[in-house]
Amino acid sequence: MLDLGCGGGRHAFEVYRRGADVVAFDQNVEDLASVETMFAAMKEEGEAPAEATAETVKGDALDMPFDDGSFDRVIAAEIFEHLPHDTAAMKELYRVLKPGGIAAVTVPSFLPERICWALSEEYHTNEGGHIRIYTRAELEAKLKATGFEIGPHHHAHALHAPYWWIKCAVGTDNNDHPLAKAYHELLVWDMFQAPTVTRVAERLLNPVIGKSVIVYVRKPRTAA
């Protein structure tokens, strides 16, 4: 399993915990060092099956150092909105996925992202920030044009959308603003406690203000 643009590694950690052979891929060496440290700690503590493997690889999403058809699964979470050449990265994703392999591709949902852009220019003009807003139809059209078969989709992280609206309103770097700080504490509490009331609320709100849209795609077993 390839975690493409792994960042801090949260997806890689979970699939490693579930027994996958994981490659965490990113161009940020500091993030990769932190991910590698966590992989080692998980192995030492027995948090992943002994037969599972985990490694980090540095590189460019437009030119990945992997052979064709190297991976059964790929997670590409919140990366294409950062890339000027998103379709080139989609072609690389297609190349490294095995025939019949499945990828989960996520980008910020249109409505929550549009509100963020309206509230803050800084949010989308910072170096490495979001350079485009996708509709789901546009994302699926680009993936289909790459060669993927389009599968199901869903939305997630509705409770995170208001947090980013607050951040955009008070300043994206203003982590000490009382409202932003209080909402962040709420999200942390929800993450660790997972109370029924917030789980139900998020499920109901996800189709409307889910911060992310996730599209599942498959590489055809035979070339067209």
From TrEMBL:
The keyword Transmembrane helix does not apply. InterPro entries: Erg6_SMT_methyltransf (IPR050447), Methyltransf_11 (IPR013216), SAM-dependent_MTases_sf (IPR029063). SUPFAM superfamilies: S-adenosyl-L-methionine-dependent methyltransferases (SSF53335). One of its GO terms (biological process) is methylation. It comes from the Bacteria. GO terms for molecular function: methyltransferase activity. The keyword Methyltransferase applies. This is Methyltransferase domain-containing protein. Residues 2-104 form the Methyltransferase type domain. Keywords: Methyltransferase, Transferase.
